[in-house]
Specification:
Number of strands: 7
Strand content: 25-35%
Strand order of the largest sheet: 1-2-7-6
Shape: flat
Number of helices: 1
CATH architecture of the largest domain: Sandwich
Structural class: mainly beta
Order of helices and strands: HEEEEEEE
Largest sheet: 4 strands, antiparallel
Radius of gyration: 26 Å
Distance between the termini: 67 Å
Length: about 160
């Protein structure tokens, strides 16, 4: 995680302001808050918190929900899809490649990932299908009852 850099060059923020009754530099409170946030974030780094979520779109058609998740470079065998009642769960792992030399910079995500979606209606979980093409995983979840719009005629009473 990238954190902001604090510069200490004798700026106005680091000088005491006796006119306002501040005996310490203003940044002292920010330093304390910064340290507390660091401790909080370091304590939250449990194994489950290390999973990342791929970018995904979910759209609804008349008879199904379609989820398209971006998983470039991930093999089909490294992805697992589970459907339980109305929850879709896509998990997997992007394995880091073996490299020679020293890695100087990396912005690519690696490790475990997880995507979850709670669907608003009942679905036919036994008919869920998935395809992986050009780094995009497409999961189609059919609705239990394809509800199509129906015109209601208004009658006079």
């Amino acid at each position: 995680m990238t954190l902001p850099v604090r510069h200490r060059h004798g700026s106005m923020l680091e000088r005491p302001f006796p006119a306002f009754g501040w005996g310490e530099p203003i940044t002292a409170e920010f330093d304390e808050l910064f340290e507390r946030m660091n401790r909080l974030l370091q304590g939250a780094a449990a194994p489950a918190a290390l999973a990342w979520s791929p970018a995904a779109d979910m759209r609804e058609t008349d008879d199904a929900y379609v989820v398209e998740a971006e998983v470039p470079g991930i093999k089909r065998d490294d992805i697992d899809i589970e459907m339980s009642e109305r929850e879709l769960r896509i998990t997997g792992e992007y394995k880091e490649q073996e490299r020679e030399g020293v890695l100087r910079r990396s912005t690519r995500r690696t490790g475990r990932f997880e995507y979850r979606a709670l669907l608003p209606t009942d679905v036919r979980s036994e008919e869920v299908s998935a395809t992986l093409h050009d780094g995009v995983l497409t999961v189609t979840v059919p609705k239990a009852q394809a509800t199509k719009p129906r015109h209601i005629e208004i009658t006079e009473s």
